[in-house]
Amino acid sequence: MRVSAAGVLDRATRPTLDKLTREQMIAEFGETGVQNPAVVDLITLDKDSDTVVLVMMERRPWNAAREQFKQIEEKLNRYMGYVLDGFLAEQYPQYRGKLVQIRLDCAEAPHGEAVRFVEAMTHATESHGIHFSIVVRPPSS
Fold first, then answer.
1. For 41-69, what is the mean pLDDT?
2. Rounded to whole angstroms, what are the CA distances from 79 to 36, 82, 90?
3. Are 75 and 68 in contact (CB under 8 A)?
4. 60 DSSP 8-state letter
5. Closest CA to 60 of 114, 108, 111
6. 22 or 91: which carries more pLDDT confidence?
7. Residue 68 exposure: Cα atoms within 13 Å on the Cβ side
8. Helices (DSSP H) in 9-141: which residue ranges?
9. CA spacing 20 to 30 A to 118: which of 5, 44, 57, 112?
10. Is the pTM of this model over 0.85?
11. How far is the C-alpha of 13 from the C-alpha of 1, rounded, in Å?
12. Which pLDDT value is given to residue 33?
């Protein structure tokens, strides 16, 4: 990868994203998960509902870290900005005009304070026309 005098990456020498290995992606952008707000963990299309789904991954149990809610909130805000500011449609023109859902995949069902936190996230997203959902995916042994 070559960088110009102005500090701009030379796209001609930079490998395309579809040719990067998982290891190269992690080295370039960092691990996926709510701890990394700079990365969209997964974008997929639910063909049954024709809805674009942006997935945030939380692999830790609830209350595993003091900063957990703040990390999830920051990631959610980044996802909402990505959609509302038009970057999703710009980078994926085939998704232009489709409904959007932000989904939190988490290690366990929300409980305690996490229930109120999830309710607040649901209200925040849906007030902007973006559906919010949670899927519980316990860690595999």
1. 93
2. 12, 5, 14
3. no
4. S
5. 108
6. 91
7. 17
8. 22-29, 68-84, 87-91, 113-126
9. 44
10. no
11. 5
12. 87
User: Can you give the length of the chain in residues?
Assistant: 141
In sequence order, the β-bridge partners of residue 43 are 54
Whether 82 and 130 have beta carbons less than 8 Å apart is answered as no
User: What pLDDT is recorded for position 66?
Assistant: 86
Per the CB < 8 A criterion, the answer to whether 29 and 14 are in contact is no
List, as own/partner pairs, every contact residues 82-85 make where C-beta atoms lie below 8 angstroms and the sequence separation is at least 24, other chains included: 82/40, 82/54, 83/54, 83/130, 84/128, 84/130
Least confident interval from 2-16, 20-34, 89-103: 2-16
Read off the tokens for 106: 């988490």
Tokens standing for residue 12 = 């001609």
pLDDT category at 2 given cuts 50, 70, 90 is: very low
Place of tokens 């870290």: 65
Burial of 112 by CB count in 10 Å (0-12 exposed, 13-18 middle, 19+ buried)?
exposed
| Residue ranges of domains in the chain | 17-136
pLDDT at 139: 77
Interval 137-141 mean pLDDT: 75
